[in-house]
Amino acid sequence: MTENLPTPASLIENDSPSHTGIFAFDAEARTLRGNLLPLGVKSRPSVSGDVGYFTADTITLPRDPSVVTLNRRHERTDPVGRATVLEVRGDHVYAEFQLGDTDEADAWLTDERDTLNRLSAEVRYLDATKTAARLSGAALVTAGAFAEAGLFALDAEDEDAAEPTTHITFAALAALPEDQRAEVIARLIHPEEVPPTPDEEETTVSDLFAPEGLTPKDTRKNDSAAALFAHVASPTADGAEAFKNADALFAIQPLQETGPSGRTVYADTATPAALGELWDHQPYSQRFLPLLSQATLTSTTARGWRWVSGPEVGDYAGNLAEIPSNALDTEPVETKAQRIAGGHKLDRIYRDFNDTPVVESYFRKQTEDVARKLDAKALNAIVGAATPTVFGGAAAGVDKGMAALVDGALDVIATENRPAFALVAPDLYRSFLLTNDRDKLAFLNAGFGLEEGDFASFKIVPANIGAGKVIVGAREAVKFFTLPGSPIRVEGLDVHHGGIDVAVFAYWAALTENAAAVRVVDTTVTP
Does the pTM exceed 0.90? Predict the structure, then answer.
């Protein structure tokens, strides 16, 4: 849970995180934590004139905090991290963020952390009354709209519209006589100040392109090349009449074709648009690893110890009698780092022609797959650590998946731990979605004492853990280790084959600290 987060010597406090917008961050772990949004406090007016005022009943937090992106200066195209914890705590919304392994996040850590030193909430209103809203994002800012908070963004739409403009090419202007060119420029700059000429209604664009020696008012037929191109520049029904019986100079081949192939001029001359990489899916967002406590790998082997039987106390009569004592025992525990890697050989032409989008896309895909594989390892660690709990059945009208969740949570509580998440098989998860949130809260509160603020941080996640099963666990029961900077990008030259070798490497380890605090309930086995 949040209160158990480590506070190493490297943790730099900007100020007390009890105030909204002021946060603490751990540069080594690349994490931020602080109070994001005050409840029961009016903001200053936003750029759209709105004043924010929210309570625990009117602000909705997403079930999955990772959908809330942390950006800089409310620029949503400049993300630097994602939320890992969102909770209502007293009169604030408390948040924790994990900075990404990106250049943008590095830039904030090295250059901007003393200036962009406030957290600011972003919300989206749920109705026209603007009384209820959903938390949709967060930003690192300098100052803002709440007394002690960062800039408050209300997702106001930009109402500024560009003024219409009139365009004319330089080539068209250059083709005009000097006096006409001046008149056109005057009309473009000050259209309201140029009076119409007496015969303006009879003037057409073709007047400006008439062949030398032929005015638009001439009635004699002209099928010369100059007249033809004047007609192409400004086609009219009357102008086409002159070319009905034109000689072979104009009539042998259609202008849109070239040569015996019949290909059009456009097909020969058109330049394809460079589309780049096409979209195929949303970037992978980890679902299971954020449920566990996390630590940093500093060696290929991590060692610790645990109590097998710990010290106990008992009643004592006093008066110099022997005090109670019991036998003690401990055991060593260790876990070894595991590896993930992947690589390919690419033609060095991508580097020779500086075609960086292809190589960068390759590493981006590999990095995403590392996140996907680590998430699967985290799920396997949870499943492997789970201790069976007997399903107690479900009363009439009670969803059996919800009943199984309570059975597992009660056994977690019996180990003097706090349930933090539940993994639910897909065949049971649908009924969870169809259950009203208030009904869920009432049932869980009655079952094992979750209050509304706790329920917002209690994660219910669908997972392929076996049909009819539910796993409930404490966050601290399983610890997941990763090497900072993973995945590590590696490039090497293959000179003899004219290639470059590209690869990524990552390291991880999982350690079950208390298997009794992770419970699996099988609803297919009835008592």
Answer: no
